[in-house]
Amino acid sequence: MTTRARELQPCAFKRDLKPENLLLDSSGYVKLADFGLSKDGIGYEGRTSSLKGSFGYMAPEVLAREPYSRSVDWWSLGIVIYEMLVGEKPMLRPSTGLVIPTFLAGDAVNLISGLLQRDPLKRLGSSEEDACDVMHHYFFRSIDWMALLERRMQPPFIPEDVRLSEDGDQHLVLTPPSEGSLSMEKEIAEAFRDFDYTAM
């Protein structure tokens, strides 16, 4: 997702980054979809103020109808990453701020907190370095970005080929990740013993 967002930069932003707009191609690489709300021609210091996006993923400055920059995409990415790691959208309270579960690792907490920074000027990715700031975060330390961009990295999940049956209906077959790709402590794994799929 980060590399896809980077491909839109430096003069465009999506404004509608959410799970529904993230697709996996047949090789297991993420593709962004639905560019109907994207804005072109906005550089580092550029601003716009139209109310665009999906409610649960909009940055505070968009909801407040204040002029905003490309950093709204980094806010949305923070919501998406939180949702992928926790299983639900974050609770953002005006009085206490972001509520983060204790089971999240420190580097994930730091990344999410940086992306969900209410002040857009302090938000991770809001500098002129843009996506590079996010890509260099410790959370992504094991990612070889060049290999990922060149599609030389093995995706953790490759969807099975979905073919049309004789009557024209599509039959979707979900394949759980291989046992070797999961790494969680024994007590945690035991809690999910009867689950067919485990997302990490």
From TrEMBL:
- Sorted UniProt keywords: ATP-binding, Kinase, Nucleotide-binding, Serine/threonine-protein kinase, Transferase
Q: Which residues form the Protein kinase domain?
A: 1-140
What InterPro entries would the database entry show?
A: AGC-kinase_C, Kinase-like_dom_sf, Prot_kinase_dom
A GO molecular function assigned to this protein is:
protein serine/threonine kinase activity
Whether DNA-binding counts among this entry's keywords is: no
Which Pfam families does this UniProt record tie to the protein?
Answer: Pkinase (PF00069)
AGC-kinase C-terminal domain location: 141-200
Task: Tell me which SMART domains the record gives.
Answer: S_TKc (SM00220)
One GO CC annotation: nucleus
Name of the protein in its database record = Serine/threonine-protein kinase N2-like
Q: Please name the source species.
A: Xenopus laevis (African clawed frog)
Underlying gene:
LOC121399038
